[in-house]
Amino acid sequence: MKYFIYCRKSQEAEDRQIMSLESQTDEVQRIIGSDDSIEIVGIYTEAFSAKQPGRPLFNEMVKRIEKGHAVGIISWHPDRLARNSMDGGQIIYLLDQGKLTDLKFANYSFENSSQGKFMLSIMFGQSKYYVDNLSENVKRGQRTKLKNGWKPNMAPIGYKNCPETKNILPDKEHFKAVRNIFKLLLSGEHSVLSIHRIVCDEWGYTTPQHKTKGGKKPAVSTLYKMLSNPFYAGLILWNGQIYEGKHKPVVTMSEYERAQVLISGETKIKPKKYAFAYAGLLRCGACGLSVTAEYKRKPSGREYTYYHCTRIHRTPKCTQPSIEVRQLESQIVEFMKQLRIVEPVFDWLAKQLSQFNGGLKSEQDTIAEKHALAVSDYEKQISNLTDLRLRDVITDDEFTKKRKNLQISIASAREKAEIARKEKPTFEPLKILSTFNARAVKYFSAGDACMKRKLLKILCSNPTLKDKKVFLEARYPFSEMLSAAGVPRLCGTIENVRTISPKLTKAQVKSLTALAKDPEVKKLALELAEFMHEVEPQTLQSLPEVQDYLLQSHIDTDTGLIADYR
């Protein structure tokens, strides 16, 4: 009699305790023994789950049985043949047709009779029940894990699964790489394609190595999935529903929302041929048009970069002269030197601030209550949305999409309310800004075109160029900080240099305190702390009080990565 040998082992949880394919083959050989009546015409071994139909080798074996190539199957156990109703029914139907006349198992004796087929169907049903029950247990465990704020399956790039706690932790090297990828996008100067070239060609970055995947350069599609994954903003998307995660986020909610706008194509990013630091950033002081840059090579071989008004090639032509980049940058450096506030001012202010913190707690409570009311309003909207879905007023797709948006809004409002409750008024954000000011010239002189442009955008607003002189204005909060400290608003040419007095009034200290608790100032301070950590890590390490503030604000002082502050 002709037989097929069939051995199967799934890589999934259902067969975790099942013996290996090699062990199954040994057991099958023991069944055959020295029985001369058994003729083996084919051996099938596959690593594939049987909880759903579609096993390629099993289907091939069944087709050959229907064609009469064999009339029997030898396997280790009935659950190797089927764990779903379709495959099990197919085996029994072949027995009913007489195309399959015998089945041999290592630990179960089959008799081709009505009673034998009945017992076999019970065995198949038991195998299906085992899989269904296991699936329910797995789903229940996943729901519990999501409720506790943890992603049930494999961690995405930038994170790793902790085998001890079963939680998801930052993978230090890859976490920082993901943060830098987001920073490139958020700069507004790179498309996803240009980011992909930087990541692969300049960084030489490869994804984390796993057993069967990873260790390669990321594809463009991988970057798109990464930049659109809410997991990196502290949320977990599971089966179309949003859950709040307890893992450390890579970006803030506002940064994530801006990233979605950029990758959606609503904001067009134009590729640049040359890396001119100030092109498009300065305005002509005469006609108001943008200032562009032009590269020149003299007959002597010397190279120059000139900045001039874009109307130089239009009619009527702008008569403003061009300025060489070195002359322009020397004026910018002189302006940056004016922004520094002398250290005695901050030393004195730090001692005075404790007198003015009394009334600030009530303001924080008001902000927290405002966000809590927003949460209640969003939850009510979800309830109303569910009623509309139950009455079939909206489709399932509309319901899922709107519920997802509302859940993201709830997470954002809850987060802001929690920040408002925990936040304590402190002078440290201005300390960070002052520290940055003191080193801005150093960073500018040593930086590349990208860093110089970033520094100018951070420190200055409304920069204009006229008569070969750059007019710069200290932007918020630098201008307000200088004003509150008794320094006139710095606006004009480099000749406007004033001496700063360390004697401040009570009203000025109050103004600085209010400035220090401004969310926009705090956000900028954390971003500058991250910037300084990347450029000059020892700067922050030398300021214990700033270190304490960063830890309270959930910034990793080892990696310089903002964690929970949004």
Main beta-sheet strand count, sense and barrel state = 4 strands, parallel
**What helical percentage do the residues reach?**
40-55%
Instruction: Tell me the name of the CATH homologous superfamily of the domain at 2-143.
Output: Resolvase, N-terminal catalytic domain
Oligomer: single chain
What gap, in angstroms, lies between the N and C termini? 72 Å
Radius of gyration: 34 Å
CATH topology descriptor of the domain at 2-143: Rossmann fold
Task: Name the CATH architecture of the domain at 2-143.
Answer: 3-Layer(aba) Sandwich
What does this molecule look like?
With 566 residues, this protein is α/β, with parallel strands linked by helices. Among the domains are: 2-143, Rossmann fold (3-Layer(aba) Sandwich); 159-263, Hect, E3 ligase catalytic domain fold, CATH 3.90.1750; 292-333, no CATH class; 358-422. The chain is 49% helix and 12% strand. The strands form five sheets. The chain has a four-stranded parallel beta sheet with strand order 2-1-3-4. Strand 13 and strand 14 form a beta hairpin. Helix 4 packs antiparallel against helix 5. The chain is elongated. The N and C termini lie far apart (72 Å).
